[in-house]
């Protein structure tokens, strides 16, 4: 099949050797615009990043953006039925660092999530979502400055694996019969017209996620890693995740019992400080993050818990309009907003582009372009402090000036 992607001729690929990225001065970065509000936020992100890079490095460095396709735009560019072209995945793999806008997933019917498919097909097993407050952002909590957490959400397993059968199908009936007849299951309350799903959680998948979370705590001088799970109810999936999390802390990082256990502690080899490894059951965690946010720093959790937790925490610091994220493995990184396609606002130049812009800030840091990343934060802080904000913040702030998505981007650039 011929390609629909135009590779910038004046750019070079980012490469990886012995786990270290080599970033040329004119790197090619693949991006997916995204469905719905993708058209409102992604072009603003590109303008803001270009401005930060130009300001930081004059014209000695610049990103060569390369559009790749997924979602509705892919169906327009390809043959009408291709939602996630193979060459899109191949480009992310080849160019090592990319970024994407949100993609629509129909509810209760239709195809499975393209966002989840990208993570699974590229085995981007860490979903990294930092949650931090910017001074002046309206928040429903009294002390949003106490929220400073980094979520490591397992991104390749759990019920997001998509092993799920619709009620009334031969597959659902077969699986239910197997469970009842061969496994002695008696607890399926209504076995007629019953949908059924499976939740795979492995030792290897849990180990690699928690390993990254602990390493992050070491590298970034964080005081704790909290394993969040629902292991009292789902003993051999969520409970096993907790067990394996403690195990990896002991076996690979030398963690020891803290005050007689069950929590652990280890000495950060870089700072000599203590890092506590603890666990909290997921429902209790959702109240703890509201009542005692200062007690949590790095969080490691399974896919569904991480999805819920990241939106709940985002609300405490201004909402999903400003919450960034990244999907990572040891080779490839695809940065991505936390929010979805917000269809009711699509094409209105209204929503907050902050989430994908801050995802790009994480991307610049990942590339080692720290000066540009810092400028981006400076611009965002300045725009918020000047109260030139999009509708989501404006409706909660006194005396704020309401701006469009693109005007917010301009305000960020003006404050760099
Ligand atoms: N990674 C991805 O690509 C994701 C995709 N999705 C998909 O997106 C679609 C819509 O999902 P939905 O549950 O409605 O979630 P959305 O995140 O799209 O929107 C929910 C609400 O969040 C607020 N919001 C979202 N984005 C912004 C923004 N940039 N600026 C300001 N406010 C924002 C709006 O709140 P208000 O109404 O208060 O203004 C909006 O109505 C679904 O198909 C879903 O599967 C969902 C999440 C992630
Ligand atoms: O893929 C989707 O449609 C939703 C995914 C999601 O909510 C998330 O990753 O946070
Ligand atoms: Mg989500």
UniProtKB/TrEMBL annotation:
Keywords: Glyoxylate bypass, Magnesium, Manganese, Metal-binding, NADP, Oxidoreductase, Tricarboxylic acid cycle. GO terms for biological process: glyoxylate cycle; tricarboxylic acid cycle. InterPro entries: IsoCit/isopropylmalate_DH_CS, Isocitrate_DH_NADP_dimer_prok, IsoPropMal-DH-like_dom. The modification N6-succinyllysine is found at residues 100, 242. NCBIfam families: PRK07006.1 (NF005425), prok_nadp_idh (TIGR00183). PANTHER family: ISOCITRATE DEHYDROGENASE [NADP] (PTHR43504:SF1). This is Isocitrate dehydrogenase [NADP]. It comes from Thalassotalea agarivorans (Thalassomonas agarivorans).
């Amino acid at each position: 099949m011929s390609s629909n992607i135009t590779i910038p001729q004046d750019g070079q690929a980012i490469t990886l050797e012995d786990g270290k990225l080599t970033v040329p001065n004119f790197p090619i970065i693949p991006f997916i615009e995204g469905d719905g509000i993708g058209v409102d936020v992604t072009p603003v992100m590109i303008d803001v990043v270009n401005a930060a890079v130009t300001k930081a490095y004059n014209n000695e460095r610049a990103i060569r953006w390369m559009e790749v396709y997924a979602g509705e735009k892919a169906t327009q560019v390809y043959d009408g039925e291709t939602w996630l072209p193979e060459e899109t995945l191949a480009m992310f793999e080849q160019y090592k660092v990319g970024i994407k806008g949100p993609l629509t997933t129909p509810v209760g019917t239709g195809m499975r999530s393209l966002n989840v498919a990208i993570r699974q097909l590229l085995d981007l097993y860490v979903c990294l979502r930092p949650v931090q407050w910017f001074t002046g952002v309206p928040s429903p909590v009294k002390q949003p400055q106490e929220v400073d957490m980094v979520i490591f959400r397992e991104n390749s397993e759990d019920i997001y694996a998509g092993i799920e059968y619709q009620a009334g199908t031969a597959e659902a009936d077969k699986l239910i019969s197997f469970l009842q007849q061969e496994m002695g299951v008696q607890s399926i309350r209504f076995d007629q017209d019953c949908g059924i799903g499976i939740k795979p959680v492995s030792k290897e998948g849990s180990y690699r996620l928690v390993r990254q979370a602990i390493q992050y705590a070491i590298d970034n001088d964080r005081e704790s890693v909290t394993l969040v799970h629902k292991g009292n109810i789902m003993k051999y999936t969520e409970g096993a995740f907790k067990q394996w999390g403690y195990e990896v802390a002991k076996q690979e990082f030398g963690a020891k019992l803290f005050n007689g256990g069950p929590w652990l502690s280890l000495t950060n080899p870089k700072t000599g400080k203590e890092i506590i490894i603890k666990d909290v059951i997921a429902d209790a965690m959702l109240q703890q993050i509201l009542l005692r946010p200062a007690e949590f720093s790095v969080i490691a959790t399974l896919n569904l818990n991480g999805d819920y937790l990241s939106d709940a925490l985002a609300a405490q610091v201004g909402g999903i309009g400003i919450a960034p994220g990244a999907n990572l493995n040891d080779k490839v990184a695809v940065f991505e907003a936390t929010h979805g396609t917000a269809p009711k606002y699509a094409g209105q130049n209204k929503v907050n582009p902050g989430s994908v812009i801050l995802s790009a800030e994480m991307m610049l840091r990942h590339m080692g372009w720290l000066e540009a990343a810092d400028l981006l934060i400076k611009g965002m802080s300045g725009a918020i402090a000047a109260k030139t904000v999009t509708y989501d913040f404006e409706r909660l702030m006194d005396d704020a000036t309401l701006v469009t998505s693109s005007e917010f981007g301009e305000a960020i650039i003006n404050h760099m």
